[in-house]
Amino acid sequence: MINRLFGNYLVETGKITQAQLDEVIEKQKKVRVKLGLIAVAEKLMTPEQADEVNHLQAIMDKRYGDIAVEKGYLTDEQVGRLLGLQGNAYLTFIQALDDCKYMTPEQADAALAEYQKENSFTATDIDALKSGDADRIVPLFLPSEVAGLQAELVQGAVRALIRLIDSDTYVLKGAVVDAFEADRFALQDMNGDHVATLSFAADGDALKAIADVYGQEDFAQVDLDALDAVGEFINCVNGMFSTKLSGTCNMDMLPPSYKDARSTAKAGKICVLPVCVNGKIVNMLTAFDETIGF
């Protein structure tokens, strides 16, 4: 998720182009992060020390970590921890930027500091973004009043999108509203110890981003068949959510429903979280302890 969030910022600020970002993300899939880059990112070595070890490794038949330990730059324990970070989403993105010669790690760090300042993120927030963990990232984009079980429902839906629909799914800043208008909606209510609604809504053909993958069909348009595929995905998300809660409270799912003409969703408080799925912006709507009506 961080590659898209931070990568889009780099494009918006003119530091790289969209074509370059696409190339970097494709490159990232094959990247194994160099230990020196991780050590510098973790502030365990300076760039000069990392370069020195790189040079020594080129002329010695030894592993990077062994040389760094011999030089006194790292301990064995630190090397072990750094090796565990080689698949980290942020670090592989920085490595790919560097490999493509579009930004050095130092330039990327400077840009990340700008991104942090512009978005009023704390150091803890940035650590969460770097982790690549959706459960730590999603709350950064949720309105403060969205918490507890509603936040768990949203996080579960994002996890399902990443796992089942598009591994590059990312979220944008959410908002709480009392009405939301869109061309098409797929939604499902739950009742029991709590009532709730989970919905995906979008204009144009954006819901195909979910329907085509989950329905395993290239829908010509977002018709009732496509909306049914989105509804089945919602049913899957809500099923996992209700199962997780089964030990503490009871939540039953009603049949999914659809709106295939422009409509306005209404409730006292609707959390609207824009989600980019397969290059399309889809809006995730949730209401908790109330349901969404039209």
Layout of secondary structure:
Blueprint: H1 2-12, H2 18-28, H3 35-41, H4 47-59, H5 64-70, H6 76-83, H7 89-99, H8 105-118, H9 123-131, H10 134-137, H11 148-165, E1 170-171, E2 175-182, E3 184-192, E4 196-202, H12 208-214, H13 224-245, E5 251-253, E6 257-259, E7 263-277, E8 280-288
Antiparallel strand pairs: 1-7, 2-7, 3-4, 3-5, 3-6, 4-8, 7-8
| C-alpha-based Rg, rounded | 22 Å
CATH topology of the largest domain: Chemotaxis protein chec
Major beta sheet summary:
8 strands, antiparallel
The H-level CATH homologous superfamily of the largest domain, spelled out, is CheC-like
Number of helices: 13
Q: In CATH's first tier, which class of the largest domain applies?
A: Alpha Beta
Model description:
The protein is an alpha+beta fold. The chain folds into 2 domains: 2-133, no CATH class; 137-288, Chemotaxis protein chec (3-Layer(aba) Sandwich), CATH 3.40.1550. The protein has helices spanning 2-12, 18-28, 35-41, 47-59, 64-70, 76-83, 89-99, 105-118, 123-131, 134-137, 148-165, 208-214, 224-245; strands at residues 170-171, 175-182, 184-192, 196-202, 251-253, 257-259, 263-277, 280-288. Strands 1, 2, 3, 4, 5, 6, 7 and 8 form an 8-stranded antiparallel β-sheet that branches. A hairpin with a 3-residue loop joins strand 3 and strand 4. Helix 11 packs across helix 13. The longest helix is centred in the C-terminal third of the chain and has 22 residues, at 224-245.
